Structure to design on (442 residues):
DNA sequence: CAAACATATTCGACATACCTAAATATCGGT
DNA sequence: ACCGATATTTAGGTATGTCGAATATGTTTG
């Protein structure tokens, strides 16, 4: 990881990642344009970044990320998304503020802390990257097939794998009730097909209306 | 607020606050010692900080915070505490990591975002500043008298004002269940004096053992 | 294949934000 | 009025990041 206070270097890496997403190596001017700096500045920085092992760079040949540079850029983007989602879905900040804050915090938060927040918000296994401005291809990897709580049979239990974030306020409510990925739930009873579900969550048993229950996805075992 | 990337200036302000807590103006060498820099550096910085209106400073006379400097320093300290508490109590990070992270994040997070986190963790009305290394005198101001859920009568309802953080894991569990300051709860029934409390929390009704219920403090209306 | 054009690099310079060490100045007490 | 403690100034250093203009390279095309 780069030291604290190297936001600019980190921004270069993340922008190289963005521009190289298409596959090709990135040109100096393209990067300069994209970042709003002069091509000369870019060349300077690329030399530094190369010296430090974060990019593959040969003069006049364009630039690409090395393994370690990619890791940093990817982590930054991921942290940005996690923070953005946390700020909007959990803290209920508006999109613009959240984006701005996330941009600053992505440089300040450790991977560890971000992962812990991620576990609260369930970003890492969330297939619909609703609040993301650019899709987080890294983090979207729903490995096992999860089913919604409304599809469970009475007596079934399972581990929450993610929450649908289609409706932020529903996700927020669920999270604040303790429905977070990783926790075990059991469907205790069903009032009626269109009615409430009674669910055991750890020490507590509670009832959710159909709509809210349908936003919880679990891996039944 | 200072611009992003002025961590050092902010550190000066916060350290001036710490040293001036006793009442007297702060001397250059004391500050230099405390911060591990040379007295010359301090003098330089004080001139800058004065020019920017954050400190009262006359040569050879020591330094103190202006209103605006105080505001920034106080906010920083508050943000530090909020983050530290969030990282330990909610994210379950160990104390050392949390402290280190909080030190970085205090400079990155906006007051707004911090206040929102505060509302989740209940720092601002929490009388026992358990995880704080230095006590947060600013933020401790329990205005109204809150009572524990175990002291409520059946049928009472009220607004959660804070959670006891004596036992971090209890607080964490409660938070993850949705017991966060500001939410309304109603005591639906009591199984027995030493037994579980059945509590309505928004849409959900759930049961908590006596120990957990006793950690929730509400303002009954 | 060589000029022309686009693109990239180097160079010299500048700005800011820190910092130090050592010389100098000031304050306060005896 | 001097002395010692404390503070400031001075002169200089390092790091980061920037620009613009001169120069070099790569690429396209006639």
């Amino acid at each position: 990881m780069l030291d604290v206070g190297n936001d600019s270097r980190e921004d270069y890496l993340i922008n190289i990642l963005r521009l190289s997403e298409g596959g090709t190596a990135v040109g100096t001017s393209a990067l300069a344009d994209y970042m709003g700096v002069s091509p000369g500045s870019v060349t300077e920085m690329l030399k530094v970044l190369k010296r430090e092992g974060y990019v593959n760079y040969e003069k006049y040949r364009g630039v690409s990320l090395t393994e370690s540079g990619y890791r940093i850029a990817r982590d930054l983007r991921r942290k940005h998304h996690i923070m953005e989602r946390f700020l909007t879905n959990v803290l209920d900040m508006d999109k613009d503020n959240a984006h701005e804050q996330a941009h600053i915090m992505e440089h300040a938060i450790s991977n560890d802390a971000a992962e812990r927040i991620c576990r609260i918000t369930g970003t890492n296994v969330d297939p619909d990257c609703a609040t993301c401005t650019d899709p987080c291809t890294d983090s979207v990897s729903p490995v096992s097939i999860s089913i919604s709580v409304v599809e469970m049979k009475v007596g079934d239990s399972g581990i929450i794998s993610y929450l649908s974030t289609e409706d932020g306020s529903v996700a927020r409510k669920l999270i604040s009730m303790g429905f977070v990925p990783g926790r075990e739930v059991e469907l205790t009873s069903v009032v009626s097909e269109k009615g409430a579900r009674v669910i055991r969550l750890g020490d507590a048993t509670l009832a959710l209306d159909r709509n809210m229950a349908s936003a919880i996805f679990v891996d039944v075992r």
